[in-house]
Amino acid sequence: DTGVSQDPRHKITKRGQNVTFRCDPISEHNRLYWYRQTLGQGPEFLTYFQNEAQLEKSRLLSDRFSAERPKGSFSTLEIQRTEQGDSAMYLCASSLIGYKGNTEAFFGQGTRLTVV
Amino acid sequence: AQTVTQSQPEMSVQEAETVTLSCTYDTSESDYYLFWYKQPPSRQMILVIRQEAYKQQNATENRFSVNFQKAAKSFSLKISDSQLGDAAMYFCAYRSRPDYGGATNKLIFGTGTLLAVQP
């Protein structure tokens, strides 16, 4: 396992189109996080899963955003009716939480979305 | 709510010299983690160093060390013997404890410091 992978690395879409991103976490990790990073800012938390359950969503995640993690493996983040304000880097991170606590978060390289 | 502030948008250091990146945070919690992450251009974010708030001893990892001042809510990163490969965006981040059960454990990031290393 080579770490967290995200696909695609770059996506250019027209305003109003739907886009979907995929994240493959480190295989034994049960936690998966999505963050959004805009230019000049640090990453901001969007949502997270423990196994297949989505346990928290930030108020940044509008109704146009939906995330899934079927079977507790890979995750998808879909944005419907994209707006120019959605242009950002979308980062995925995974970690392992257990009786010893939570490990550090390992990040993917991100998907850079540009809405034109 | 917790906040993290990095007041240095950009820093520059000569190769082999030492540089210190600043970070302050605000929290009402007594137990938490603090992190420094490195994000090279077009590459993934990687963990540089971690500090547990209940530990008074400052964390060190090879050329990287921190100065953790809990009362002042300050968490600076010192990079010694800077190398060209250290050039990157550096983010300070906060994470609450506990780190088990239903706790979110989301990271709260600062805005980052872009470090340039001059040969």
Question: Explain this structure to me?
Answer:
The complex is a heterodimer of chains A (116) and B (119). With 116 residues, chain A is mainly β. In chain A, strand 5 and strand 6 form a beta hairpin. Chain A is globular, with a radius of gyration of 14 Å. By secondary structure, chain B is mainly beta. Chain B is 0% helix and 50% strand. In chain B, the strands form three sheets. In chain B, strands 2, 5, 6, 10, 11 and 12 form a six-stranded mixed beta sheet that branches. Chain B has a four-stranded antiparallel beta sheet with strand order 3-9-8-7, with no helix packed on it. In chain B, a hairpin with a 6-residue loop joins strand 5 and strand 6. Chain B is globular. Chain B starts with a strand and ends with a strand. The chains are: A mainly beta (116), B mainly beta (119). Chains A and B meet through strand 4, strand 5, strand 9, strand 10 and strand 11 of A and strand 6 and strand 11 of B.
